[in-house]
Design goal:
162 residues; Nuclear Transport Factor 2, Chain: A; seven-stranded mixed β-sheet; globular; disordered C terminus
Length: 162
């Protein structure tokens, strides 16, 4: 009987000693600290710039889709493209967002400085639309569109108020 109590007590002590190993004391993920859509976009591009590809992939839904001037792309194709970038800097301007249930729609202008596939990135603005979806682990991108400025004639500019 005494032997059983000793083993039980030893089991409890070992469990208490092992418990801290299961707790992650590292710094909080930047996405966990973000409080608005602008911060999510900023963090995403910071991760691209720093080459934190696991963090970038973690914020893109498995079903992620993207459109660019050369067509529609999957998550893996977009990851390949992003990994081809070597960014020196980036700027996000004119950010607007709107909530729709568990989703956020974000638009902004993006300017990248650096190289893509070893070639300099032209100094031009790109209009970006991103759909973020709230899930249990935070926010993930489900869809995105990149349109170079002036790439499509017309649009709302032609219909300005008089």
């Amino acid at each position: 009987m005494k032997s059983r109590r000793v083993w039980s007590g030893l089991g409890v002590v070992l469990a208490l000693l092992a418990a801290p190993a299961c707790i992650h004391f590292g710094r909080a993920n930047a996405f966990q600290k973000a409080t608005n859509p602008g911060e999510y976009e900023q963090q995403m591009w910071e991760h691209v710039k720093a080459g934190k590809w696991l963090d970038v992939r973690a914020r893109m839904a498995e079903s992620y889709r993207c459109t660019m001037p050369n067509g529609a792309h999957s998550r893996s194709e977009m990851m390949d493209f992003l990994q081809s970038l070597k960014l020196d800097n980036f700027a996000i301007t004119d950010l607007k967002s709107s909530a729709n249930g568990a989703d956020m729609v974000v638009t902004y202008d993006l300017q990248l400085q650096g190289k893509a596939n070893g070639q300099p990135i032209p100094p031009a603005r790109v209009h970006v639309l991103t759909v973020w979806q709230g899930v249990k682990r935070g926010w993930i991108q489900v869809a995105q569109s990149f349109t170079p400025e002036g790439a499509w004639p017309g649009g709302p500019v032609m219909m300005q108020r008089q």
